[in-house]
Amino acid sequence: MTMDPRAQRLYRWLGLALVVVLAGVLRLWNLAAAHDLMNQFDETYYVKDAWSMLHLGYEGSWPSDGNASFLSGHPDVFTSNPSFVVHPPLGKWIITLGMLVLGPESGWGWRITTALLGTASVLVLMLIAKRLTRSTTFAVVAGLLMAVDGLAISMSRVALLDTSLTFFVLLAFLFVLRDRERTMTRIATTVAARYDGDQPPSWGPVLWNRPWIIAAGAALGAASAVKWSGAWVLAGLGIYLVVTDALARRRAGVQFWPTDAVRQGLATFVLFVPVAVVVYVASWTGWLVTDGGYDRHAGGNALQSLWLYHEAMYRSSAGITGGHAYASPAWQWPLLLRPTGVYWHLDALGANGCAADNGCAQVISTIPNPLVWYAGVAAVLYLAYRFVVARDWRYALVLTGVAVTYVPWLFLPTRTVFQFYTVLILPFMLLALTFALRDIAGRPDAPSYRRLTGQRLVIVFLAVALALAAFWYPVISAMDVTYDFWHLHAWMTGWI
């Protein structure tokens, strides 16, 4: 039975809208429950850096009792002495916006912008999934899995940088996808028009009118201005663009397609990279236009000083090799051996109204939905197999996303890293899982029995995933729970 066109239009927008609302509620509800600066992780630095940047233009230093003063409602105890930092400023400026509007009195101020970008990331993921699958239903599936995922939710509820990074990276992939929709057709049409009878042209067009590539470059400049790992995505997507342009020219029949791809690659570089550099440098405006920032006068001029500061940042970042209770090398991430606990507070019986013998806890764990995580890992492997068999460009784009957000970390085996970094990988794993679930559901032309069986399996999977999401939500959102309830979630020794 064919759905009424008006009902189709309503479903296309209402399905996505309901998922975004759900994502927003799960991220914004009781956002300030943990009235703390997560001093075991970097919220303690980013929030105070952001507040001092609002007043100084650069990161100021704080006294040893800065956290206590900030949390007690007296945040203006920073000094004009500069603080050395290892991350660019954009992510902290984003945190600043929330405190500028809502004030620094509670977590609402310093976490609201991260929560909103986490919600927006769900929307962007659905827009990507809809273009890749050509299905509103499976776009909703992708968005729903991210909307309720523990890793995505918890990282949207603390003022860290990784959710802002994820938003800009997803935005760049959406823009590259939009460019592909325009460019592949233009290459094929232009080359076809240049045929001389049956003789293919030697050269294809050099395309400069690619606004979505410029937009993608700007988004990745912003990503890199949040954390330098955005630069890996910039390099990886640049390679992807060159390769896809080359293959499009070969398919169209261009005789000298490898050389032709180099010509287009130079044009793409000009469109893609300089704007990223401009956006990145612009994020340092506060440091550049003031005089007090760290290493501000280390060189002969502002830009030379900025370069020297970056050298110092790189040396310091590369040297982060100390032990940490929650450290998890990148090879462990697919196995989910050591999720990160970013907040833990325990009240004994009778304290703060606790009625449980073993005490009451508030916890923020960044563990993803276990079922969805392991299914996502399997789906990435499945998609790699499907790409080898079918050579589908959509699979290549998703696998590129996984590769540029995960593989570089494997080359840093001694650096102290954490499982929560995988919030950037998660959307691409969910896209792979969405493709796998679509295949399980069956093709539209498959026999009715095959379709019915496949759809039931997908529904059962989603139902179990939602049940697990509900089970885990209290311990990723700092809800008051008994210690025993928290301990029920210790399915592995490394999960507690």
TrEMBL record:
Residues passing through the membrane, by range: 108-129, 136-153, 159-177, 269-289, 371-388, 395-412, 418-437, 457-476
Keyword Cytoplasm set for record: no
Lineage top rank: taxon: Bacteria
Occurrences of domain ArnT-like N-terminal (ranges): 90-281
Pfam families: PMT, PMT_4TMC
Main subcellular location of this protein, as a coarse class: membrane
InterPro entries noted in UniProt: ArnT-like_N, PMT-like, PMT_4TMC
Topology within the bilayer: Multi-pass membrane protein
Pathway: Protein modification; protein glycosylation
Key words of the record: Cell membrane, Glycosyltransferase, Membrane, Transferase, Transmembrane, Transmembrane helix
EC code: 2.4.1.-
Record-annotated Protein O-mannosyl-transferase C-terminal four TM domain positions: 303-495
Locations listed in the record: Cell membrane; Endomembrane system
PANTHER family linked: DOLICHYL-PHOSPHATE-MANNOSE--PROTEIN MANNOSYLTRANSFERASE (PTHR10050), PROTEIN O-MANNOSYL-TRANSFERASE 2 (PTHR10050:SF46)
UniProt record similarity statement: Belongs to the glycosyltransferase 39 family.
Described purpose of this protein according to its UniProt entry: Protein O-mannosyltransferase that catalyzes the transfer of a single mannose residue from a polyprenol phospho-mannosyl lipidic donor to the hydroxyl group of selected serine and threonine residues in acceptor proteins.
Protein name in UniProt: Polyprenol-phosphate-mannose--protein mannosyltransferase
Organism: Microbacterium jejuense
Lineage: Bacteria, Bacillati, Actinomycetota, Actinomycetes, Micrococcales
